[in-house]
Design brief:
The protein is of the alpha/beta class and about 240 residues long. The protein has a single domain, classed as Rossmann fold. About 60% of the residues lie in helices and about 10% in strands. The chain has 11 helices and 5 strands; from the N terminus they run H-E-H-E-H-H-H-H-H-E-H-E-H-H-E-H. Strands 2-3-1-4-5 form a 5-stranded parallel sheet, sandwiched between helices. Helix 1 packs across helix 11. The chain is globular and about 50 Å long. The two termini are about 25 Å apart. 2'-deoxycytidine-5'-monophosphate (DC) binds next to helix 3, helix 6 and helix 10.
């Protein structure tokens, strides 16, 4: 089967499973370094859907707060930061390297624990999922709580995970490639610290949605993870179609 017809075949599986005219939403959740971003982008490309990195929204709020010397404990400062990003939200900002520093990562995890911020960002995420930009037939969102809270009606939910050591190793290599000198143990400690905060916060903590498929990428590279995800999607839709 050629690549083109294979793509068409994938699209048909989704459309048969869901009804051709519905907007398809794929939720990819999981912790930092699990490979969820790479997987979500690849799935969006395969199906021709639009992709939203929801972590980047929290990162953008964190950056705006840091730049304004604001405090995460001050609702007024958070409101200013939220207004700043609502005005300046562009696909370029969401991809910017400015969002990828360790300071922003740690602050993002703190702002993400604030219900006030989460609520404001829910609307942006739900609107994106329900009305994907550029008339796309579906959306892929990655985050921590897409399948559990933001979009519980998502058509496909995959929770991507990997051991903290493997995730730290990936992050460590990424940082080395950008010429940042870091200690592996520090990277691991930061990953563990952020996981704890993301899992234990009161406002929509990171949990595996009941109907999510868990994909452990500890011993998988990106193409293997993609291929497993495609198996999950095919199995779900072939089963759904057979049951009709
Ligand atoms: O995926 P990431 O590392 O870029 O996410 C940045 C922070 O935002 C992280 O601490 C978890 C939080 N986050 C969240 O609480 N809910 C989401 N849907 C996405 C990210």
């Amino acid at each position: 089967m050629g690549l083109h017809s294979f793509r068409e075949y994938d699209r048909e599986i989704l459309e048969e499973g869901l009804g051709a005219d519905v907007n398809v939403v794929i939720a990819i959740d999981g912790p930092a370094g699990s490979g969820k971003g790479t997987l979500a982008r690849q799935l969006a490309k395969r199906f021709g859907y639009t992709y939203l990195d929801t972590g980047a929204l929290y990162r953008a709020v964190a950056l705006a707060l840091l730049e304004a010397n604001g405090s995460v404990k001050n609702e007024r400062d958070l409101e200013v930061a939220l207004n700043t990003i609502k005005k300046n939200l562009t696909p370029e900002l969401l991809k910017s390297n400015l969002l990828r520093t360790e300071d922003v990562s740690q602050m993002a995890s703190k702002v993400a624990a604030e219900p006030f911020v989460r609520k404001a960002l829910f609307d942006i995420q739900r609107d994106f999922a329900a009305n994907p930009p550029n008339g796309a037939a579906g959306a892929v969102l990655d985050g921590r709580d897409i399948g559990s809270v933001v979009y519980p009606h998502a058509d496909i939910k995959i929770f991507v995970t990997a051991s903290p050591e493997v995730r730290a190793e990936r992050r460590y290599k990424e940082l080395q490639l950008t010429g940042t000198s870091v200690d592996y143990d520090v990277v691991l400690a930061e990953i563990v610290e952020r996981d704890e905060r993301d899992k234990n916060r009161e406002a929509s903590p990171m949990v595996v949605a009941e109907d999510a498929f868990v994909l452990d990428t500890s011993s998988l590279d990106a193409p293997e993870a993609f291929s497993h995800a495609m198996d999950i999607i095919r199995a779900q839709f072939i089963d759904a179609t057979d049951e009709k």
